[in-house]
Amino acid sequence: MYTSILNHEKPTVERQFKESVGSALVRVISSEENSPLMEEFQLAHQHRSRFPWLLESGKLPGEAKKAGAVGAFCEALASYVPMPQRREEGVTRSLRQPLLAETKEELTKAAAVAAEDDVSLWRFINGIARVSLDHKDADVDQLVPHIQAALAQYCEFRTSGTSPDPW
Asked: Which of 38, 58, 72, 115 has the lowest CB atom count within 10 Å?
């Protein structure tokens, strides 16, 4: 077990849950119906990667492996807060261009790395627990809507924390 200099144990997440999250992420990325969401996600993480104080930049000490899409997936999972379902009648997301196979492959690789990040997954577990979903019993089908919602929230808050002037 790893203990930090602050004498706190790093959380560990069960292998089965990591695999379920990884499979759910791949399902979301691969689904054509999620192409608009994934395009928005890609734009959001590209925007946020320009700011050196954000995880996605890869410039935080000790966090270089979480640059780009990996950091974006970690942030999306870690910051997920279940919200009441909103009905978006008459609202459709349109693709400016379809996701390229290379882009899907890149996002799939990044998702696999993010699905191994115990800290982000531990925070995601806390999020899904708010809607009484026990991570030990959660299967891929139950996780997909939460993954979609986490990615959508990430996109909605893409400018959060990007101002160089906090005041």
From this structure: 58
The DSSP symbol for 9 reads B
Radius of gyration of the chain (CA): 16
In b/e form, how buried is each residue of 1-33, taking b as 16+ CB within 10 angstroms?
Answer: eeeeeeeeeeeebeeebbebbbbbbbbbbeeee
Positive/negative CA dihedral, 18, 22, 24, 28:
positive
Question: Tens digits of per-residue pLDDT, 8-66?
Answer: 677 888 999 999 999 999 999 999 889 899 999 999 988 888 888 887 888 877 766 67
> Phi and psi at residue 135, in whole multiples of 5°?
-60, -25
Residue 89: partners with Cβ closer than 8 Å, 6 or more residues away? none
- Angle at Cα 2 formed by Cα 54 and Cα 51, nearest 5°? 5
Alpha helices (H) in the chain, listed in sequence order: 15-30, 35-48, 69-78, 101-114, 118-129, 140-156
